[in-house]
Amino acid sequence: MPIITVEIFPGRTNDQKRRIAKRLTDSMVEICGAKPQAVHVLFTEVDPTDWAVAGELCSDRASEPAKSG
């Protein structure tokens, strides 16, 4: 039973989650030969204050002007 975990920031609509789940399920069926009813997709919404990239909280990065790099 494939279990796919999607960790995203809050704010996606139920319709967006449905579409993501459908495409991930379809991909597992097509590529791995899984049965659709065996594919589980779990959405975990993570607050930007609980997520860091390159050592910086995403909540801090969103409030800063864009940095060149």
UniProtKB/TrEMBL annotation:
Entry annotated with the keyword Endoplasmic reticulum: no
Isomerase keyword on record: yes
EC number: 5.3.2.-
Signal peptide (from-to): none
Keywords: Isomerase
Residue ranges annotated for the 4-oxalocrotonate tautomerase-like domain, each copy included: 2-61
GO molecular function: isomerase activity
Domain of life, per lineage: Bacteria
Catalytic residues of the enzyme: P2
Family to which the UniProt record says this protein belongs: Belongs to the 4-oxalocrotonate tautomerase family.
Protein name: Tautomerase
